[in-house]
Each structure stands twice: as C-alpha cells, then as structure tokens.
C-alpha cells in the first residue's frame, strides 16, 4: 500500500493505526506490552490502532523501535504520516458550532470514493442549497442566535466542496418522497431546492433516486443512513447512523451486509435515475405559492 495516498487526517490515522497493529502482531507483542513502552494503557494502544485518537510522534517512534523497525527508509514514511494525521481538517474552523461526534464523519466523507446515502426527512446535506440549509438549521432549535446559524450554514456549504474536486467521490443519494414534499422552507426556497436536485442529477458523479411513498414498508424503515467506501485497502466500508444527540459508526462485516442489502433494496424500489427529474418536477407542484 502507498501510504501517501491516504487523504485527510482521520483516514491517515486509520491507515497509520492499521500499520502499527500489523507491525505489533508480526512481532508477537501484546497491546499491554506496547502500551507499557509508551507509558500508556493497552486500551490506548487499541484506540491508536483503530485511528480514534491523535498520535504523538514520540510515541510512534518508540513503538517502531519496539517493533524492530530500525531502517530509516521504513520509519520515515510512518513518522511523516503521524505528523500529517494530526493536521486539522477544514471543519476545525467550525468546531464551535459543530458537534464533536459529527467531525469524524466529515473526515471519512472527504476521503471516500463512494458515498451512498438514504435520507427520509431532509434533502441530504451535500445536496442542499444555501437557503434550504438555512431553513433546516434555523428550524432545528439549536442554542445560539443568527451568527451561529450562519456559521453552520457556511460549514455545510464548505462541506459540499468535496463534490467539486478534480477527483470527486461518486455520490448515490436515495431521497424519500416525504423529504421532497416536507415544507421546511418557503415555497420559493423549496422549488429552488428541487430545481437544484435536478441540475445536480445531471452531473456524472451524482446519481439521485426518489423512494415513492407508495412502496409502503421497506427494510430501511429505521431511518436515514450512509455507507462510505474508500480506495485504501486498509479501511473497511463504514455505515454512519445519526440520532438526536450523537452518531454511530459501524464497520463490522455483519452490519455492513445488512445495510448494503437495505440500500440495494431501496435502489431497486426507487425511481430509475433517468426518471428522477420528472418525479421531482411533479413534486415541485406541491410547493406552489
């Protein structure tokens, strides 16, 4: 694997953690022994290997020595990765108005090559217009005044830059018809949002489908979720589930399988991508006024 391909600080942590775990296991060293060498617990080593904490270069250097990595040509890329893994992501500038549990998702989203998302209540954040985002954020009744709302809107718009990169991820969004019909903003804003979806659906890296209300029961009734895929072989797909006060990140094979099947089922039961524009146009008449 080419370490330099890892994109974004959070993904770099995961890649570095995986490399450290492999080196430790190859030497037959326990997490407790590794933790002792850097004056830490075995649980700290576990969190490091999962990429869930930042890395001190001194700790990485000490672990590499313990694992028998003495050649500077082998040590240098890993130490450089440790430095890069601690660089702040763009979202750090909005940390005061963004929940901590959401920030890891932004790092994963930034590094993904495929984002599959199902949304039942709102238009997905990556596809929202500024006016629609402002209405949704203002209606969420978070503490703070107009300044906080505007900063959260700016953060959401900044997040969308991932789709305009020279090498953008593929975004496959399935939106429940209820989200298109829900009047979370003034009629003009809603119509503008729906027109925006039609425009985005024409981009080669974006596919939008609509799940009609008429399909009734389906496997994803539990709510919205996203599945992210990466081109780094050391990083498994991740399922992201959000609730009112936090989020859950799932990467166990059995969880991934269930959510993949649910997403595939939704894909088959939603509008064909070529029919999406017509479906959205028909829904837009609901917001006349």
How would you describe the overall organization of this protein?
By secondary structure, the protein is an alpha/beta fold. It has two domains: 3-85, 434 Repressor (Amino-terminal Domain) (Orthogonal Bundle), CATH 1.10.260.40; 90-287, Endonuclease, Chain A, CATH 3.30.870. Helices cover 47% and strands 12% of the residues. The protein has helices at residues 9-26, 31-37, 42-49, 57-66, 72-85, 103-111, 130-139, 146-159, 177-181, 187-200, 253-269, 276-284; strands at 114-119, 170-176, 206-211, 225-229, 238-243, 246-250. It has a six-stranded mixed β-sheet, sandwiched between helices. A hairpin with a 2-residue loop joins strand 5 (238-243) and strand 6. Helix 1 packs antiparallel against helix 5 (72-85), helix 4 (57-66) packs antiparallel against helix 5 and helix 10 (187-200) packs antiparallel against helix 12. The longest helix has 18 residues, at 9-26. The chain is elongated, with a radius of gyration of 22 Å.
Give a nutshell description of this structure:
Helix content is 47%, strand content 12%. The chain has 289 residues and is an alpha/beta fold.
Name its key features.
single chain; 289 residues; alpha/beta; 434 Repressor (Amino-terminal Domain); Endonuclease, Chain A; 2 domains; six-stranded mixed sheet; 12 helices; 47% helix; disordered N terminus
Cα distance spanning the termini? 56 Å
- Biggest sheet strand order reads 3-2-1-4-5-6
Q: What is the radius of gyration computed over CA atoms, rounded to a whole number of angstroms? A: 22 Å
Using the alpha-carbon principal axes, give the shape.
elongated
* Helix content percent band: 40-55%
